[in-house]
Amino acid sequence: MDGCGRHIDHLRLSLTERCNLACQYCSAGHDATSCRIDADFAIALVRWLSSRHAVRHVRLTGGEPLLHPEVTEIVGALSSLGPLDEITLTTNGQALTARASRLRQAGLTRINISLDTLRPDRFARLTRGGELARTLRGIEAAIAAELNPVRLNVVVQRGVNDDELGDLASWGLERGCTVRFLEVMPIGPMIETIRSQLVPAAEVLGRLSESFALTPVSAPPGQPATDFAAVGLRGGPSGRIGVIASSTRPFCSRCRRLRITARGEILSCLFDTGGSSLAAAWDGQELDEDAADRMLQAAVMAKPHLGHRSQRKQMISIGG
């Protein structure tokens, strides 16, 4: 429990700072870091947090977590721990086609895949060189592997992809995916452009309402998204649509997350500017859980009531 009475039971664990894309809201585009977390260290951290501190939800992030050479083994080890309710992963999908089935067999519960456009030229520009077809094949592979519900994350940017909201929603719903639209956040490269590129959630919902009848649905504790049952108008597809309004409707009051970066730094908030390094409690084979407990306590009690709303670090290094 943190100082604001929030029950912290969600962990976002970054496996690597590497990525095979360089999306404009995540990276400045010139990073050459190859930092990744030691697999045994990652497993020990989750074992400690789940057994001693009742963390029940783990999301593997990056960078691009599929670039960690032991990602499948990490998922398998986490699934054998027992106490976890879910193990999820966020990916850009570029390397997913060959891995989706193995990840499901290893114990991955479900998956989030970034998809900001359905236009190949625009995808290449937004991601600085990515191939849309590879991500689309990854999505289809995740669906076939029954990593359900497959969630598609769309970061909405004015003048960039905000003319595709209805198309993206329809494409995902036709395949049984949940489609979520995210506001851009004042982090890294977006600090300078957020005023011109932010599309408020209210406007996103207004545009989606032109194609879908939207009815709010209840969400589990700790979920940042506001979800809607979407019924397609004029014979369109139906399913689940969500918005994550991090900038215009901060959800700090219901945040139940803790973050650990690929460098082992523990962060209580996406807007943290620094934190203790849990690597100091790791000797390469064993985690000093008492020392880790002290760092955890300090981080959790420092978790702010409201994030500072500005972060100079890039998203790729924080763990997304």
Task: Describe the model.
With 320 residues, the protein is an alpha/beta fold. It has one domain (10-318): TIM Barrel (Alpha-Beta Barrel). The protein has 10 helices and 11 strands. The chain has helices spanning 39-53, 71-79, 100-106, 120-127, 132-144, 165-174, 194-197, 201-208, 289-301, 315-318; strands at residues 10-14, 57-61, 86-91, 110-114, 151-156, 178-183, 212-216, 226-232, 239-244, 257-260, 266-267. Strands 7-8-9-6-5-4-3-2-1-10-11 form an 11-stranded mixed β-sheet, with helices on one face. α6 links the parallel β5 (151-156) and β6. α2 packs parallel to α3 (100-106). The longest helix has 15 residues, at 39-53. It starts with 9 loop residues before the first strand and ends with a helix. The mean pLDDT is 92.
Q: What's the SSE blueprint?
A:
Elements: E1 10-14, H1 39-53, E2 57-61, H2 71-79, E3 86-91, H3 100-106, E4 110-114, H4 120-127, H5 132-144, E5 151-156, H6 165-174, E6 178-183, H7 194-197, H8 201-208, E7 212-216, E8 226-232, E9 239-244, E10 257-260, E11 266-267, H9 289-301, H10 315-318
Parallel strand pairs: 1-2, 1-10, 2-3, 3-4, 4-5, 5-6, 6-9
Antiparallel strand pairs: 7-8, 8-9, 10-11
Helix pairs in contact: 1-2, 2-3
